[in-house]
Amino acid sequence: MKNRKMQGWAVACLMAVTAVFLSGCSAQKGPKNLLPENEKKRQTVNLFSPMEKSIPNAVNVARTAADLTVAMAEEKLDVTVDYWTYTAKDYQDRNYDEVCLDRARNNMDDIYLLNPDVILKLGAEGALMDLSGLDSAGNLREIIRVANTVDGKLVAIPQEVVAYGLFVNVDLFKQYDLALPNTPEEFLECCRVFQENGIETPVGANRWWLETFVLAQAYADLYNGGNTQAEIEALNNGGARYSDYMRPGFEFLKTMIDQGYIDAEKALVSEAIEGEGADFLAGKTPIVMAYWGAANTETAYGKTDFEMQVIGFPSSRGQMPVMPMTGWAVGANAKHREDAAKVLDVMISDEALQLFAETNRVISPSKNVKVDCVPALQPLNDRIEEGIYVLGSNAGMDVEQWGNTCLIVRQLLAGASVEECMEAFDELQDAALGK
Amino acid sequence: MSLENWKRGLLMKERRNRQEKRKGFSLLFSIVLIFGILGTIVFWLSQKTSREMSDASIQNLSESLDLIQSTIEAILCNEVQFQELVAREIARSEDPEAYIRACEENQMMSKIAMIPSGETEGIASTGEIFTGEGLDFSAGGTVLGMPVSESYINYMGTWSYTIKCPVERDGQEIGTLYGEYIYDTIDEFLPAEGFYNKQAFLYIMDARSQRFVLHPKGMGQRNAGHLNLDDFYRANDIREPGIRAEVEESLQTGRKVMFYHDIREEQALNYMWPINDGTIFLVGYVPIDVIQREGRSVNQNIIMVVFLMLTAFILCIALYYLNWKQQEKVRRELEEERKFHNQQLAEALRAAQLASESKTTFLSNMSHDIRTPMNAVLGFTSLLAKDAEDPKKVREYTQKIAASGQHLLSLINDVLDVSKIESGKVVLNLEKFAMDDVIASVDAIIQPMAKAKRQEFCVEETGSRHEYLVGDETRLNQILINLLSNAVKYTPEGGHIWFRVATLKQRSSQYAHIRFEVEDDGYGMTPEYLEVIFDAFTRAENSTTNKVQGTGLGMAITKSIVELMGGTIDVFSQVNKGSLFQVDLELRAVEMPEGETEHSSGEEPEDPDILKGLHFLAAEDNEINAEILEELLEMEGASCEIASNGQLAVERFRQSTPGEFDAILMDVQMPVMNGHEASCAIRVMEREDAKDIPIIAMTANAFTEDEKAALAAGMDAHVPKPLDMELLKKTMKQIRKRKE
Prior knowledge:
The complex is a heterodimer of chains A (about 425) and B (about 750).
Chain A: H1 2-26, E1 43-50, H2 61-77, E2 79-86, H3 96-105, E3 111-114, H4 116-125, H5 142-147, E4 149-150, E5 153-154, E6 164-169, H6 170-175, H7 184-196, E7 203-204, H8 211-224, H9 228-237, H10 242-259, H11 264-269, H12 277-281, E8 287-291, E9 308-311, E10 322-323, E11 327-330, H13 337-347, H14 350-360, H15 378-386, E12 390-391, H16 402-413, H17 418-433
Parallel strand pairs in A: 1-2, 1-3, 7-8, 10-12
Antiparallel strand pairs in A: 3-11, 4-5, 6-8, 6-9
Helix pairs in contact in A: 2-13, 2-14, 3-4, 8-10, 10-17, 16-17
Chain B: H1 3-92, H2 96-102, E1 111-116, E2 122-124, E3 129-130, E4 142-143, E5 146-147, E6 152-153, E7 159-169, E8 172-182, H3 184-189, E9 201-206, E10 212-214, H4 229-235, H5 241-253, E11 257-263, E12 266-275, E13 280-287, H6 288-291, H7 293-386, H8 391-422, E14 431-434, H9 435-452, E15 456-462, E16 468-471, H10 473-489, E17 496-508, E18 511-520, H11 527-532, H12 554-564, E19 568-574, E20 578-590, E21 615-619, H13 623-635, E22 639-643, H14 646-655, E23 663-666, H15 675-683, E24 695-699, H16 704-712, E25 717-720, H17 725-739
Parallel strand pairs in B: 15-17, 21-22, 21-23, 23-24, 24-25
Antiparallel strand pairs in B: 1-2, 1-8, 2-3, 4-5, 6-7, 7-8, 9-10, 9-13, 11-12, 12-13, 14-16, 16-20, 17-18, 18-20, 19-20
């Protein structure tokens, strides 16, 4: 009985082996074209965006999040999105904004990720497409819509509300028994204590983001005093001077520079994060400034050995987040403008923004998308949820804020006096008023 | 099997075991060796395949890069040729400046400008004044002999380079023509649909600034972005000084470089590929898994084969081990069995040796024991011859001769008993008997013996006993007499002997549980002797030194009979204090049927003259025995005629007249014809009395079986030798009664 069973198995195995052998032999090679049929050529959309310098084996979640939404668009629209990028080598190199302006003006690409001043410039030049017709545009928060509207056109749409804040090493604050500062005076006092305790430069800075201090102090009342529109109107018609708003912030920065709380020379030639990041991560610098997403990504401050918190900038109204509006724009005369608009429509759809926000843990520009933030961002998030913040850029203002303030702060860093800086603002305002 | 052979067997077995083990090890070693060799071959093949695959990968990538290099160089050449053509056109035109202004941006050139000779500025196609500021030709790069500038970001915000060429009219240089070209153009001519399935990386790098000026669309992951060579190497953790030196040398000399380095934890083939004599480079990497997709499959197959081989190897080992274990188990069992048998054989040998020794001792004892009464017989016979005239002495001597003869007879009977018991020929003759009779007969025998030695013999009975029991009365008597006579023998004069019969609690309603105890206060026994007391051929003392005579078989016989009866015997003894024997028996109890009285079958009083006047035919080959028979019969008033063998006896009976002989006394063992044959021959004779004449076996073969054999041969009765005339009389009487 057992032997018969064994024989049965042996025969079955032999048959299986024979079948496999025969099937292997019978695969005939007929005279047919071995190459697959040509696929339909997919439409291409060129996308231009900045790229941070790479760190080995580190993941840039912001980039990953954007990639996911691009991939979503590719899949839904059956198009190919080609990336183009530029990164400045150093401060002497042409910066991303300049290259963006050139590329957009020469219609080199279809979709651009632009900083607020570039949005304003290109928007004013009519180089950007009006995106208000996109289906997804209806989901945007009102503040986003207002901040990105130039001459009645919605020229850019962000995937995240970029909020700038102070990244502080809470361990060092505790070590020196310091409370997190709310006002400029408290901030200066903290710097003094740090300096007395051997931390020569308590604030790490670069040539890009120091204007956040100025804007926080300048517009804390304007945006949170309940009279925003009237005040902006006054600025636009010359009833109020930008220099009056800007002065306290510049004087504050001047004090910081004079006291050595900021290394002006270094800041003037430092790229964002590159210049100050290493010292902050090493615990040598207790305070730096950066954007919301930097708290999430390993390429910035997503992984620290100490307790980190992100708070607003010091102002008369307490800690103040500063929110400039970077955004995606489509070239008005881009080669593939229609396809690009469709791609962007998908990229800013609620579905894509939900994915983006979950990946990057940011505040979404869509009123329909909400995601919890990382604990370090909670103080900043609380202020924003309270509605207390200043805009870093506002297309409603005739004088572009984000880029101009940045450039004038650089003058201060380079040794200009506060008065000279105020004159520069006056000149800009006068130019805007057509004087 | 001798001890020597046995030891030799053990040694051979050990050697065999060792050989088997050695065989097992060498087999295992061979398997390991074969698989080791196979494994080495597979490893070598896999290494060889890997090397070949690596070579193929390098060649494959080199060919692809060479193709890209050729394409880009061809583009550069075309650009120069186009620019020279434009220069010639400008030279021909009357207003070169107007010509320049009229040039529009085209696919090949993003800007064109000319600076007339001897001037520092000229006009560009975009309309602005052109000074050539910002253009750096110091690196010395050329295309077809025309200088090419370092790469820069142009007014369109994209990486570009400028080639300058002279504008000559009539052999005289009238200006320099600057043509600006963007790298994006090159991308148009490269495969957009993929370079190694878009998994590979490729940048075009400006050699002078080491800036990455183009990341062609189809060349690698789209989300990658590197600023320059340093950024690229830093991001991919390529820091080895050796590699960096090679790269540096490549930048200086324009040599091609390709090396292995892990990129994001994946092995990759990295390269630096100069174009246009090293003014620009192709920089990037291809993951090995991408370039060797089929290689991975080959490797997987190799791993699969190796895995299968290993599995087969392990299975082989496992099967071998199981088989070996099974064999080992069987071998061990066989060995155990053999060991057991050997042990049994050794024990048997030892027992045989012991038996042999015992029998030798026994024979020695027997020789002594037989010689002693024999000496008495012969001695008194001599004395008898001498004092034949003195009737008093004659009577005394004959009494002593008779006593010695009796002793000899008891010796022989004991030996026969042992022989029978050992050969399992004893059969109990179960009959109803009265316990009182047993006690009475024992008392009758022992009491005189005890008195003779002035010993006190007490019989005690306890418990309510059954009157009648079923058992072999004779053998029970034998047991008790054996024990008691021993007690008498081994108790000095004036000692005490107790015989107790106790009825114990019944274990079964049908069987009486009886304990017989024989106790004395005699010599006692040593513990060593107690251990062997029931063995045959042993005696407490060597008979040569013992004043007590015996065969040394009594206790062995006693124990054997007790056990045959399903009982037990125990002994307790201390030297010089006495001994106690306990025999426990279970005998079936019966009630005496009514009307039947004891001795109801009562023997009739013996007739002392029953033999008187009878004439016997005696077949006896031994003359002395024949003579004794004649004398004894004569003493009883009978006569006999001797035939010296069976044949003669038969012949004599045939010749006799009917009634001539009253009976035939037939010896069994005789020459020519034995007693059985002779009896048969007589019985089959056609004579009237042949069937009736009593034939009595008279033989030294005294066993019951002998008696049965005699009866089967047609004889009427059996009388053992030495001849007891009383028994003969009794037998004759029984025969006669039967015949009547």
